[in-house]
Amino acid sequence: MGVSWTKEQAQVIHLRNRNILVSAAAGSGKTAVLVERIITRLTVDEPPIDVDQMLVVTFTEAAAAEMKERIRDAIEKKLEEQPENVHLQRQATLIHNAQVTTIHSFCLSVIRDYFHMIDLDPGFRIADEGELKLLRQDVLEEVLENCYTAGEQSFWIASKALQQEGTTRRSRRLFCSCMNFLEAIRSRKSGSVSV
Predict the structure, then answer these.
(1) How many C-beta atoms lie closer than 10 Å to residue 3's C-beta?
(2) Each residue of 94-147: pLDDT tens digit?
(3) Mean pLDDT estimate for the chain
(4) Is-cis flag, bond preceding 122, omega within 30?
(5) Fold of 7-118
(6) In terms of C-beta density within 10 A (0-12 exposed, 13-18 middle, 19 or more buried), how is residue 63 classed?
(7) Considering the entire predicted model, what is its pTM?
(8) What's the CA angle centered on 185, arms 183 and 188, to 5 degrees?
(9) Are 30 and 24 within 8 A, CB to CB?
(10) Where are the domains of the chain?
(11) Do 4 and 33 form a contact (C-beta atoms < 8 A)?
(12) If phi over 0 gives left and psi between -120 and 50 gives alpha, with beta otherwise, what is residue 187?
């Protein structure tokens, strides 16, 4: 006996030719619904599509791996029911090349494929957290040095205020703490994660 879907779940599974957003609480069956939507696209829709023509985007690597595994399992289950189905046999092979990925990985692959269109060095890479911290420190020191050299009045006012708090080292720590605090506020407002 098949799964009994709610009205909303069935709508997600069968709605075509328009954009949809699936948003629901953890454990509500989103993954099962999306897997069923994909399997329906592969097996019921006319003409059926190939799994490697789809883009399935999640937020975490774990969710992407789970989604791909569930799609693979669903294809294998359908193949057990229809072992002679050439299209399903093809899907069982193509699942390994399917784009089931995180949004970050997808964006990175687009950048890698089209780096020349945005005038980016093809040898670019993503910095790790330690490198980002060092870069922020270097930039902070350069900004402070430039402000000091230029003799900007706002720099001197901030510098005097910070020096009243104690040593230069403490001032820098306080300044860095303020910058981190402001970054955290900015990332919350934009809904992004601070790095």
Answers:
(1) 10
(2) 999 999 999 989 999 999 899 889 888 888 888 888 888 888 878 877 777 777
(3) 82
(4) no
(5) Rossmann fold (3.40.50)
(6) middle
(7) 0.64
(8) 105
(9) yes
(10) 7-118, 129-190
(11) no
(12) alpha
